[in-house]
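Dig into my protein:

:::
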Amino acid sequence: MTPGSRLSRPLTGAAALCAAMLISGSPGYAQSAPFAGMAGVWSGAGTIELDDGAKERIRCRATYAVSHDGDGLNQSLVCASDSYKFDLRSDVTANNGVLSGSWSETSRNVSGSLEGRAGRGQFNVVVSAPSFTANVSLRTTGNKQSVSITSQGQIKSASISLTRS
């Protein structure tokens, strides 16, 4: 299999990775406004482990738009590795530390939902689509984010660090 041949496979794991990136918040803000301070452009890199055991470096760039009250987040995210490129759009709402929302990977027409909890810069979320779930853990400290994802999909795990530009 050539590296580019993976581009045509369903992107459930990669879509979860992208959806996971959208739910980051800043620990310096009250739980009632977890996305306050998130607006802007974030970028970074990390590694992914694929279902066949291969490991690859991944690069991501996210643009976050935050609602005036800090409880809503719209996100655009583009990520690439040696064998993937994907484009995600997401909408998330926070209500007293409970996160809910939807995401779609536009180039492959994949979509799903997310649910979880947020508090003090830590986010634990389940991202889902038909026949797929992933567990996501995020930690935000200042202008840095760390993301850890595990799933049974095409991407087995991911570890990514982002910095706001």
About this structure: The radius of gyration is 15 Å.
